[in-house]
Amino acid sequence: MLVRFLMAALLVSVAVAFAMPEIPQARALCSAVLAIAVLATAVFTSSSTIARLARRLRPLLLVVLVVPAIYMTLQLAPIPIHGFGNPIWETASAALNVPLAGRLTVDIGATAQAFLHYGTTIALALIATVVALDKERAWQLLAMLVSVTAIVSACLLVRQAVGSDGLSPGDAPVLAVTGAVPAVLGLVLSAAMLARAFEERRRAKQLSFRLATTLSFALLAALLCLSAILARGDGTRTAIAALLGVGIVLAAFAIQNWFYGIWGMASVLATAAILFLAAFTLLPVRQNTDLTIALSAHNLAATERMLQDAGQAGSGAGTYAALLPIHRDIGAPLSRERPTAAAAIAIEMGRPFLYVLLMLAVLGAAALLRCSLRRRRDYVYAAVGSGAAAALALLALVEDGILQFGASLLAAAMFGLAVAQSQSDAATAALPSQSTRLVSEPDNPRPTCAPTRTYGIANASMRIGLGSIAVILIAQTVRLLAQPSYPGRLPVEAAREALLRALPSSPRGDGDLRAGRLAPASQPTANEAAASRPEIGGGPAAPMVLARALQYSPLRGDLWLMLAALSREQRSADYDVAALLKLSYYTAPNDLALLPLRLTVALGEVSVASEPELRELVQRDVRIALTKQPSLRPALIAAYQSASADGKGLVDNLISEWDSAALQSMRKEIRAPSPGTELPPPNRPPGRGTAR
Questions:
Q1: What is the pLDDT of residues 375-432, one digit of tens each?
Q2: Calpha distance 200→216 (Å, rounded)
Q3: Cα(first)–Cα(last) distance of the chain, in Å?
Q4: In this structure, which of 76, 215, 399, 478 has its CB flanked by the most CB atoms within 10 Å?
Q5: How far apart are CA 501 and CA 521, in angstroms?
Q6: Coil vs helix vs strand at 136
Q7: pTM over 0.85
Q8: What are φ and ψ of residue 528, in 5° steps?
């Protein structure tokens, strides 16, 4: 009963992760289900199973699993030493007039969400290991994973056939998967299932219905996964990564069946290495660029700038999307920036962490291959883990699919399966019995109780460790469910939507940074850009709520602008509007969706002409609206209408230096109000009634 519940929990978690990875409630559901499963494992699992699990999870493997969690915790922890944290915290502290502790991460929420992602992945890997300790359950888990990858690959093929936006224009995507990881891992799993079925066919010497069904299913899954790989734009790169993983499984199969001994093993591995190196020469490599993005098929100008500015300690796990608005080009949608997983890890965790991770992936692949070759039967499971580790190490240099929620859970299940079947329990030492003394031996309790006591301590330690993981997952689930709102009863996302409603013409050009998903953006049109001084909603508590949100995510350029607009609208003396505007410029300098409101607030601020730094930033926005983005010209005119005398003088001087004819043309476009009429607010289209 427990094993069935664990398999159901594993299947539900992977399915939900692939279907709804960007919905916080979906991640909370996965975390809650896995927490219950881990807690049930710690309480109800038999002592023999716990002992077998402890033998699989050796101290070195436990250290490897714990170190990333410790490092993310250090990134979240306040740094008491001044100057060791990221400089954004000092700047935000000065702008908000509150003391903020320095941290390595630049976004507490994003790093906490990455910690949840990692904890969920580790929990699922542990559950998969417990399930796969039994050989029959291991085969069922292998079949289940092949089914999942086949379904995901089929959905990806349908999306590529009918369009990336789903089954019909305007609909939501059918499956929120953009990487090739499921297809590559599915091909490796299908190869292992085919190898296992072929061996059973040879032993049975006849083709039964069950065996024929298994072979047909494995061939169909392999065909779907291969088609999904070849249909991609970077098919050559992902195909070579898949070839590496499948080649390791086939090499283990050939050694176990045909090439015995050290020389046979060496010949097969040498042949596989030569074939892979020959295929590796087909990889298109970008010249004169960072190694982490050299194999990418996308244009990664912003990512390359981020890599140049990245420190050795990283900017915090999960903060790539928060940093991207600072480095992207003017008006470039975030959806065009598809970094590799290696580049994202180097930016978020630091290059030393990336190098150690790649080294561990190679060593892990070699260790699992060695375990596979040491087993006469059931060797395909360890070979699957070896092939997956090698393929993912190469795929990390090609795309960012391994960092997606569903793909990481799928990989965790595969590694749990491989670790569980990496060694045979028949070859290990038996559990200590109740009494190991001969009748003629003198009564000496120490030799008798020491093995039993050691076994009991290991058993209790493993159960406590599993219980601790369950508690952490439960705490993360509660935090994830409570995350959307901050004190003051105004959700942070509602504040963002209020900002965008204040600019009805402005598209969401900066994507959904809270979820880390890069949504496509369109350029504003002439009618859409006619934004201006909006009537900003929100009660007196709104600035406090925005300030609280910025204390956790100080790189939110939209929230800095929202706070500046609200402070100016309410004439609040708590914040310096000019300082808030500067931070909005620094954290989202090229976001055209924010330009209309930012110009309105900046030109209406009296101090804009007296601060050279802010004046240069405003002049830059004016140049963008006049020269690079003519569709934003109505927004500039609307901001000019509501500007202060100093703001109008600043625009006049700038445009007259550039083109005096353009200044005269802009003034003609401003309709002079007739006597007795009120100038309509710029955010209302001309011709509408303005009577109150």
A1: 878 899 999 999 999 999 999 999 888 999 999 999 999 999 999 998 887 644 444 4
A2: 14
A3: 70
A4: 399
A5: 16
A6: helix
A7: no
A8: -75, -25
Selected residue with higher pLDDT from 539 and 685: 539
The whole-angstrom separation of Cα 653 and Cα 589 is: 22
- What would the two tokens of residue 638 be? 């609307």
The Cα 333–Cα 335 span in angstroms is 5
Residues 14 and 32: their CA atoms lie apart, in Å, by 13
Q: Which residue shows structure tokens 């039993």?
A: 452
What's residue 105's pLDDT?
Answer: 93
Band of the pLDDT at 679, cuts 50, 70, 90?
very low
More confident residue, 459 or 133: 133
More confident: 151 or 522: 151
Rounded distance, CA 56 to CA 668, Å? 78
Residue 518: band (very low, low, confident or very high) from pLDDT cuts 50, 70, 90? very low
- Separation of alpha carbons 32 and 480, rounded Å: 11
Q: Is 415 in contact with 201 (CB distance < 8 Å)?
A: no
Q: CA-CA distance, 531 to 509, in Å (whole number)?
A: 15
Taking a C-beta distance cutoff of 8 angstroms, is the pair 625, 580 a contact? no
The answer to whether 320 and 344 are in contact (CB under 8 A) is: yes
Q: Which two tokens stand for residue 115?
A: 């910690």
Q: Name residue, tokens 């330690």.
A: 461
Quick one: pLDDT band at residue 166, thresholds 50, 70, 90?
Answer: very low
Higher pLDDT, 299 or 443: 299
Q: Most distant CA pair in the chain: distance in Å?
A: 119
Find the Cα–Cα–Cα–Cα dihedral 431, 437, 443, 445, rounded to 10°. -10
Count the alpha carbons within 13 Å of 318 in the hemisphere toward its beta carbon.
Answer: 26
Q: Which of 180, 127, 125 is nearest to 152 (CA)?
A: 180
Per-residue pLDDT reduced to its tens digit, 623-648: 888 777 777 878 888 887 878 887 77
Percentage of the residues of the chain whose pLDDT score is greater than 90:
26
CA angle, 129 as apex, 140 and 56 as ends, to 5°? Answer: 135
Rg (CA), the chain: 30
| Contact assessment for residue 337 and residue 305, using Cβ atoms and an 8 Å cutoff | no
Residue 217: Cβ within 10 Å count? 18
Q: 611-648 burial by CB neighbour count: b if 16+ within 10 A, else e?
A: beebbebbbebbebbbeebebbbbbbbbbbbbbeebbe
CA distance 212 to 201: 9
Q: What are phi and psi of 323, to 5 degrees?
A: -85, -25
Over the stretch 334-373, which tens digit does the pLDDT of each residue have?
556 788 999 999 999 999 999 999 999 999 999 999 899 8
Q: What separation in angstroms does the CA of 46 have from each of 35, 52, 470?
A: 19, 10, 18
Burial of residue 435, with CB atoms counted within 10 A of its CB: 0-12 exposed, 13-18 middle, 19 or more buried: exposed
- Predicted confidence band of residue 115 (pLDDT cuts 50, 70, 90): very high
Q: What is the 3-state secondary structure (H, E, C) of 424-451?
A: CHHHCCCCCCCCCCCCCCCCCHHHHHHH
Residue 677 has pLDDT above 50, yes or no: no
DSSP-derived letter for residue 169 is T
CA distance 494 to 516: 17
| In contact, 639 and 669? CB cutoff 8 Å | no
532 neighbors 682 (Cβ within 8 angstroms): yes
476 neighbors 129 (Cβ within 8 angstroms): no
- At position 631, the amino acid (one-letter code) is S
Whole-angstrom Cα distance, residue 559 to residue 597? 12
Q: Which of 428, 396, 424 is nearest to 411 (CA)?
A: 396
* 3-state SS class at 66: helix
Q: What three-state secondary structure class fits 78? A: coil
